[in-house]
Write a structure and sequence with these properties.
Blueprint lengths: L4 H24 L6 E3 L9 E2 L2 H6 L8 E11 L2 E5 L13 E3 L8 E2 L20 E10 L12 E9 L1
Parallel strand pairs: 2-3, 5-8
Antiparallel strand pairs: 1-6, 1-8, 3-4, 3-7, 4-5, 7-8
């Protein structure tokens, strides 16, 4: 069978719409954000702060309630929020200690599932994930070995 100019054009015309359809399907398959909230902060308004600005001006936010985006890191004696940019320093001096409290249990909105509860045989993995977090800044407490810029305490909201 010989390929003619016409058959090649018709073939391309069928491939391009199929390609765009597949791209749209994959785009629509993004996972929905999960929000975990606590009732500890009902009625409190939070100020959204850029992570870099918070680190540079943390003294100005002492004892204030903020909302900040970052990447959560956890490990042995580590519970920290770092800048989600790949081009900045992620050392403890440029991170905030995250103090989750059992006094303010975080529950998936619309359910009774806690952030740190066993869900269907597995725990929610938030290590190295981008999150939005709300809590109260405390510059006197600087986390493990006092090596962080401060603490975000009374965490009442986590969006994964």
């Amino acid at each position: 069978m010989a390929f003619t100019y016409h058959s090649v054009i018709v073939g391309y015309k069928m491939v391009f719409p199929l390609f765009f359809l597949v791209a749209i399907v994959f785009q629509s398959c993004k996972s929905e954000k999960k929000i975990y909230q606590s009732e500890c902060a009902n009625g409190i308004s939070f100020k959204h702060v850029n992570f870099s600005h918070l680190i540079d001006s943390i003294q100005n936010y002492d004892q204030q309630y903020v909302e900040v985006d970052g990447t959560y890191q956890e490990g042995k004696e580590e519970s920290a929020l770092v800048n989600d940019s790949l081009f900045v320093d992620h050392s403890n001096e440029h991170a905030i200690w995250v103090n989750f409290s059992q006094d303010c249990p975080l529950v998936l909105v619309g359910t009774r599932r806690g952030l740190f509860e066993d869900n269907d045989g597995a725990f929610i993995v938030i290590k190295n994930k981008p999150i939005t977090i709300r809590g109260k800044i405390d510059v006197r407490h600087k986390g493990h070995l006092g090596s962080y810029r401060g603490t975000i305490d009374r965490v009442s909201f986590v969006k994964l």
